[in-house]
Recover the amino acids of this structure.
């Protein structure tokens, strides 16, 4: 959910829409917004599953301090989606476990 017209902040400026792929599904996002925001706006709330208990995790802190929003972005695991900006054509995957360390 996005707030296009806020009673105090006013109307959101016009934004460039792009298409990204999440787990094989194409979704619309706004260029430059955090990946996590684009996912939530499209109803995607789970970013990863923990290694030990395989529990779902999503955005927790939203400022890049925790690791709950990590996903595989363009083949790079452990990417914090709350502080990574959307770009056209990104390929994003739900991360399961720790991800490959490179």
């Amino acid at each position: 959910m996005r707030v296009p017209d806020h009673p105090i902040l006013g109307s959101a400026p016009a934004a460039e829409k792009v298409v990204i792929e999440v787990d094989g599904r194409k979704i619309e996002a706004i260029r430059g917004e955090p990946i996590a925001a684009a996912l939530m706006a499209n109803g995607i709330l789970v970013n990863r599953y923990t290694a030990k208990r395989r529990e779902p995790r999503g955005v927790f802190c939203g400022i890049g301090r925790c690791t709950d929003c990590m996903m595989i972005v363009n083949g790079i695991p452990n990417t914090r989606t709350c502080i990574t900006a959307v770009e056209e054509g990104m390929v994003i995957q739900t991360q399961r476990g720790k991800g490959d360390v490179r």
The radius of gyration is 14 Å. The mean pLDDT is 93. The helical segments are 35-41. The domain at 14-96 is CATH 3.10.20.440 (Ubiquitin-like (UB roll)).
